[in-house]
TrEMBL record:
PANTHER family associated with the record: RIBONUCLEASE H (PTHR48475)
CDD domains in alphabetical order: RNase_HI_like
Protein name as catalogued: RNase H type-1 domain-containing protein
Source organism, top-level taxon: Eukaryota
GO molecular function: nucleic acid binding; RNA-DNA hybrid ribonuclease activity
Organism listed in the record: Cuscuta campestris
Residue ranges of every copy of the RNase H type-1 domain listed in the record: 77-206
Family matches, as InterPro entries: RNaseH-like_sf, RNaseH_domain, RNaseH_sf
Amino acid sequence: HLTPYFQAHPVQVLSQQPIGALLRSPNAPSRMSKWAVFLGAFQIEFKPRPTIKGQALADFVVECTAREEPSPEDPEADDWWIVFTDGSSAAKNSGGGVVVIALEGFIAYYSIRFGFKASNNEAEYEALLCGLRLAAEMNATKLRVKCDSKLVVGHVSGEFEAKDERMKKYRDTALELLKNFTAYSVEQIPQAENAEADILSKLSSDTPEHIRRMANVEELSEPSIHAFPVGMICARPRDWMDDIVAFLKDGALPDDAVKAKLVRTRAPGYTLEGEKLYKRAYNGTLLRCLRPAEA
């Protein structure tokens, strides 16, 4: 099949062996004479192989040398959620600000209004407790807490002793909530790095519009230490994702026949990676499914 292509173009054969002379020799064996007749249909020119240039050899070595593959990134590096908290105590009203940075960079703003009087330290603690509850409700497992209160961070880390009875209750409540996470850290940061949480704790008409429109405003009627800390966390209601996740994970279907048929029909369009559910788009792109609290 390649004969027409070779007949249409001149061919150069580079070799250190005298192939051309052997084919033209009258003393060549009969087999080589047949080869010479066959190759005579082509415009073949035999040339000695030139010496390899030093630069070409260097380029070949550079191109073909095995390179050390970069070590893969630690898969657990992005498993940490981040929560910024700040409390504000004023004569007219007190409040707390919480900024939750979830996986994949999703950010949620919360402004908590206190329906009771609180000192500055109590306001800082209330903001911390609200941030811990919110992170637990959003199913965070690893949490980094950043707070600008040296006292609160010192109490929780054990660096400072809580002498006041109310501070002890706040500390114990915070430590109890931190048990909801497989790993956590509590870090003190400068106020300049906690600007958004500070703004949320003093939410008013002067607050930047992008924060006012995105912030979830919640009311806290009584101090957190007056209630059992775990009881403050509302159980997540079931939603449409639960049935699909259960089917993809264990093959379980709802008892209701109609719902079971719907789940079986919809499930092929979804994929489960760990605990995350993704919808497969028409072009093959995986779209992350969010629960109401995350959305």
